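So, read this over?
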Amino acid sequence: MTDTAAPAAAMAPAQGIKRTGAVALVVGHCAGLVDLVALPVWVGALIGRFGFGPREAGALVTLFLLGAVLASVLTARNFTRLPRKALTVVGFGLAALAFLLASQQTAFLPLAALHLLGGLANGMALSLVHGTMGRAANPHRLFAFAGIGLGLFGVIYMGAVPQLMLQHGGMVLFFSFGAIMALATLISLLAFPKVEDRTQGATPRSPLAPGVMAVVAGVSLMTFNQAMVFSFVEVIGSARGFAPQAIVGTLIALGLVNFVGPAPLAALLEKRISAGRVVIAGPMVQAVLALVITFASVFALWAPVAAVFVAVQVFTHTFAFGLLSRMDKSGRTAAATPAMLMTGSALGPIIGGALLEGISIEALGLMAVVVAGLSVACFARGIRASR
């Protein structure tokens, strides 16, 4: 995880943040967004290792994400008045405790309570991390390098945890989450940065700029699509008859793609491509890939598309984060990033599970097309309003 922060640390002077502060933000970003990396393993373990059905597994992950959304909304509203370092440490610490306790449980109700607690704690900490990023000198670039860190973290996680679960069982899933949150707690305690306010006269309750909420809705809808399909990638691969090791290999490749692809590319293209064009195109590309993942029955076609699926979200959201940080310099909207991401992620697994169980795999892809259209409409409205 420490290696994850190295790229961002190198960029720290450009952000007006010390290297140790950049390390803390990137580690917090990786820990807080563990769901983006681990969703298929998480859902797959709850189904295959704990014996839950798709709806129950989706509901557990949804409880974690709903807790994160609620905490993020409350934290973002009060971001400019909160003791950011102290609450980040407390949040990641409580999340670590919740997951370590979950590793000792197998029944639905105790796991449900601990998922909710972990989500509340994690959402608060991650909101403070993202709000701090949003007040940096160049939020787009800092968020891009955090994305590189998340990609490296994904490679390490997908390479290690599924194999450890094969050897030691499903408890490894929650042990791994607890260890990640504990590391984020320690590094936040030692190095969480202080970033000066970039606003001029804005108050914590001042109205948001026109178009902000439409862009927020566009991001949330895109994240819903990702969660709805990506949560069941492992399940879809198994249903198509692909070998377990081939599916794990695809997930490892996905992590590699996320490390070397979308975030570095977003950093390089920051000044070359309009953020408006990127956020309009992103949902369209995501919908096409979702159709292939849910309809393809040939591994040679399915695997490369599954491997790049998350990259579309990472690339698009980097531009959306920079766009929102320019539209609202107080950091409140940036602090609501977990709510944007996890509102969609919270609904995605449970709705995806219902579609998968009640209709068919292909229904996931068709729903993705509908949601992509709504996302494009929201982004277009937000961009028009901001001009």
Observations:
- The chain has one domain: 19-194+209-386.
- Residues 19-194+209-386 form a domain with the Growth Hormone; Chain: A; fold (CATH 1.20.1250.20).
